[in-house]
Each structure stands twice: as structure tokens, then as C-alpha cells.
């Protein structure tokens, strides 16, 4: 693995920062505190760039005359040759800017909690072998892992690496005694083995489709809170592919994470001050809060043809309405939901949603073809229709 040198000391999206006091809330049902880490909290983050960016091209001809052209479409061409002459064009490529913004916002140390759920949304307990004897004596059920996710995206080239680390549960503020239980390391880029689709947005949000063994797909959706650039969720759907056609949801994994500091490859544990708490055993969201008509701007990436590649930027392409039936979704804690449904055309549509404040939600969708191949990925910022608010 290549070595990286990171000197950045700012938050992921230029948010104004204020010191955040440490807190030591207790683990659910008992007065024994869980591991915490110190961190910083951000003011309101930068909003999503939902409007298509306008690009500027400066072309220089043989006579050194300059012209500036405005266009609504991304320009990805840097050099051109006509009639045997060489014409040099300096082109601003918006995809480079979008990736650079994405890299800044996604990179860093992300700490929080993670939990597994059944395909019906029921929380799954941690293995008894990893739970401290003290919890068993108190007859406390433990559902959450304390987690780290050190993440680094190269701003100048489309490479992303991150590790999902599960830490063994501890009793009290035992930061020095924290031990890794498992490490799942991922690398993202063109030609990466096992990656079948990756779509990203300058906000830091992304969707990745991973092909695993035994005909299992892992559909990973990372969504940033548009009002808090240091808060995000990652939802992974484990999908079994039957006969290369039918997709069946097997389980769900949820991470709730906060930005802790610049990338340090997970080497630093900050003690008892994580700005979140265990969540798996808390109440799921209410079905009626999902149901209704939702309106929003949707950023889309298409994978329907073989020449589009597996690495795409999400662009703002359309405004659409969505009608949801709350009872047909899998309801999860912390205002999260997901679904995996077959369409009338025989395709399969996955959706993950996160209900925000003031009747807003951020949703992510992935459409699979009849042969279980990713066709389209989208991320939308939606507002609930007034009649359902």
C-alpha cells in the first residue's frame, strides 16, 4: 500500500468550528460508560450543490486570441488536433473540482457506532464471546460495535481507501485497552477488483456496489447530513443473487459516524468523547413519517452501457416526485429506512432513506437490471408534500 502524508488540520468542508465539550453518556440500560472520543462539532455545513455547474472553456488559437465559452455540460477534453495543426485548449473540468471537494469532505477519521439488522429490521446481538463479563452479569444485551472508519481520498486522482474497524466492547473509559475485533479494508478506483459500480457527489456522499463471494452483493450507501458536514450514515445492504436474476435482501448493517479529525489511518483513540451513542436497541422510525409524496432534485449516474465505466459522478439531472408507502419499508432506528423491491418491468430497486429535520430527507437509490447488474444510481434531497407534513 502506498504511503500517504497528510498535513490537513481542517474539517471536511470548511465549516466554521467551535470547541465541543466532552461528554460521557452511559451505555444503554446500565450506568457503565462506553468508550468515547473527543472531537469537534461543526456549524451548519455547506449545502449540496444540486444545480448543474456551468463550465468555462478558454480556447487559445494560433493567433493567441482568447475566447470564453459558457456551457451547461461538463467539458472533459484537454487537447485537440485539427487539419494537421495543434490547438491547445485549457479546459476547466468540473469533474475534477467535484472530486476534489468530495475528497476534502470524505477524508478523515470517522468514529461512531455500527450495528447489524435482519432483513426485517430487527437488531442482532453481538457474539457473546466479545461481550465483557460485566455486561453478562448485569444481563445487558449488547447490539452495537464502537467503530472507526479512517478514510482518505486523493484529491488529484480518483482513488479512495477506507477501513471499517469494529472495536471490542469495553467497560468504562478504557481507551488504552480498546482492541480491534475486525478490519474491513476497501479501495475504490477504476479497475479495482470486486467493485462493480461507484457513484459520488461533491457533498461527500457516495454509493458503491461490491461483488462478494457466494453470489452476494454489498450495496453501500454513504449519506452526509446537508446541514451538518461532520455527520453521516453508512447503510450496507447484503443482497443474495439467485440465478443471476433475483435479488433477495439478507441483512443490513448501519454505521452512524462523526468526523473526529484529519486522516491518521486509525492510529489514534481519543478517549471518552464520541459525540454519539449506541443506537441499535432504540425505537425504529414511525412508518407514517415515511409515507406520502416527496418532491426533490435528484442527482443521477447511469451504468446502463458498457462504455460508461464503473466510476461516475452524480449529476443533477431531474426533479421528480416519489410516492412511498411506509408499511412496505424496513424501518430502522435514528430515522432511517430501506427497501428492496421488484419493479413492474422486472428490475429491482433498492432505496435507503434518512429523515432529517423540517420534513426533509436524503435518499439513495440503486436500480438493478433483470440480470442483477447496476443500471442507475441516484441521490436526492427531498421535501415532504405539505399535505403530509
From TrEMBL:
Stretches for region Disordered: 1-26, 61-88
Biased composition range(s): Low complexity: 11-26
Domain of life: Eukaryota
Bias kind Polar residues: ranges: 1-10
Ranges of Basic and acidic residues composition bias in the record: 73-82
The protein, known as: Uncharacterized protein LOC106772692 isoform X1
Source species: Vigna radiata var. radiata
Gene name of this polypeptide: LOC106772692
Amino acid at each position: 500500500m502506498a504511503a500517504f502524508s497528510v498535513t490537513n488540520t481542517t474539517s471536511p468542508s470548511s465549516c466554521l468550528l467551535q470547541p465541543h465539550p466532552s461528554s460521557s453518556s452511559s451505555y444503554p440500560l446500565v450506568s457503565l460508560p462506553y468508550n468515547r472520543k473527543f472531537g469537534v462539532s461543526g456549524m451548519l455545513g455547506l449545502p449540496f450543490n444540486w444545480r448543474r455547474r456551468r463550465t468555462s472553456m478558454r480556447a487559445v488559437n494560433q493567433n493567441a486570441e482568447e475566447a470564453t465559452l459558457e456551457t451547461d455540460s461538463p467539458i472533459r477534453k484537454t487537447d485537440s488536433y485539427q487539419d494537421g495543426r495543434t490547438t491547445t485548449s485549457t479546459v476547466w473540468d468540473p469533474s475534477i473540482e467535484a472530486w476534489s471537494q468530495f475528497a476534502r469532505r470524505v477524508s478523515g477519521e470517522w468514529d461512531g457506532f455500527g450495528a447489524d439488522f435482519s432483513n426485517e429490521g430487527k437488531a442482532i446481538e453481538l457474539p457473546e464471546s466479545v461481550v465483557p463479563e460485566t455486561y453478562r452479569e448485569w444481563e445487558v444485551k449488547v447490539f452495537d460495535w464502537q467503530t472507526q472508519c479512517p478514510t482518505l481520498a486523493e484529491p488529484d486522482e480518483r482513488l479512495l481507501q477506507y477501513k471499517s474497524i469494529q472495536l471490542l466492547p469495553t467497560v468504562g473509559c478504557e481507551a488504552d485497552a480498546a482492541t480491534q475485533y475486525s478490519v474491513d479494508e476497501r479501495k475504490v478506483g477504476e479497475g479495482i477488483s470486486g467493485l462493480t459500480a461507484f457513484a459520488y457527489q461533491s457533498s461527500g456522499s457516495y454509493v458503491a456496489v461490491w461483488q462478494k463471494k457466494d453470489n452476494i452483493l454489498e450495496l453501500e450507501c454513504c449519506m452526509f447530513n446537508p446541514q451538518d458536514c461532520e455527520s453521516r450514515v453508512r447503510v450496507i445492504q447484503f443482497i443474495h443473487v439467485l440465478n443471476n436474476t433475483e435479488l433477495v435482501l439478507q441483512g443490513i448493517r448501519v454505521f452512524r459516524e462523526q468526523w473526529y479529525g484529519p486522516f491518521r489511518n486509525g492510529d489514534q483513540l481519543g478517549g471518552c468523547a464520541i459525540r454519539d451513542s449506541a443506537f441499535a436497541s432504540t425505537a425504529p422510525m414511525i412508518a407514517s413519517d415515511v409515507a406520502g409524496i416527496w418532491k426533490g432534485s435528484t442527482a443521477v449516474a447511469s451504468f446502463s452501457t458498457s462504455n460508461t465505466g464503473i466510476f461516475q459522478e452524480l449529476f443533477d439531472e431531474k426533479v421528480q416526485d416519489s410516492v412511498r408507502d411506509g408499511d412496505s419499508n424496513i424501518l430502522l432506528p435514528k430515522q432511517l429506512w430501506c427497501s428492496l423491491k421488484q419493479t413492474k418491468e422486472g428490475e429491482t430497486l433498492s432505496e435507503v432513506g434518512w429523515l432529517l429535520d423540517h420534513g426533509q430527507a436524503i435518499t439513495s437509490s440503486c436500480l438493478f437490471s433483470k440480470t442483477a447488474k447496476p443500471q442507475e444510481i441516484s441521490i436526492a434531497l427531498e421535501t415532504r408534500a405539505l399535505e403530509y407534513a
